[in-house]
Specification:
Layout (H helix, E strand, L loop, with lengths): L7 E7 L6 H17 L5 E5 L5 H11 L3 E4 L18 E2 L5 E2 L3 H11 L4 E6 L4 H12 L4 E5 L2
Parallel strand pairs: 1-2, 1-6, 2-3, 6-7
Antiparallel strand pairs: 4-5
């Protein structure tokens, strides 16, 4: 007798301006269904806590009783070794931040090796493209949806 697999970790990356909630939710439902079909007991959704697709996906997951693993970028925290002196910027509130924090967060999500990354790409989101590029480089399958 075989024991069932565990939860499939699914990464979600997407545009802050993602406009098509039904497309995103239908895609996540399909991914959940596919995970069940191949023997997982369900899914856990990992997302980067940004406005737009990340938040929409997290809300969908919670409404459906799916675990959500939040990975927010540490915008105001310390810089990484890849940062050049003087590169920090100020946001509209006047708070200083590291513009590379989102890229570091993307790599951290990739380093957790999800079974799949779903990318919700709208208007050529650079953060979404960065995360999917990193996932592909790590050999993680990706599924990209686009909204018009």
């Amino acid at each position: 007798m075989t024991t069932p697999m565990t939860l499939a970790l699914i990464g979600l990356t997407g545009s802050r301006l993602w406009p098509d909630v039904p497309l995103l939710e239908d895609t996540l439902l399909g991914v959940w269904h596919d995970a069940l079909q191949i023997g997982y007991t369900g899914i856990e959704l990992m997302q980067g806590c940004a406005e737009g697709a990340d938040t929409l996906g997290g809300n969908w997951a919670r409404r459906n009783g799916i675990l959500v693993r939040e990975r927010p970028a540490d915008w105001e925290g310390p810089c990484g070794t890849e940062c050049q002196p003087g590169h920090r910027k100020r946001n509209r509130r006047g708070t200083e931040y590291c513009p590379l924090a989102g890229h570091r967060r993307n790599q951290q999500m990739v380093d957790e090796h999800p079974a799949l990354f779903v990318g919700a790409s709208y208007r050529n989101s650079s953060g979404t493209a960065d995360c999917l590029r990193r996932a592909k480089k790590a050999g993680i399958p990706t599924l990209t949806i686009t909204a018009s």
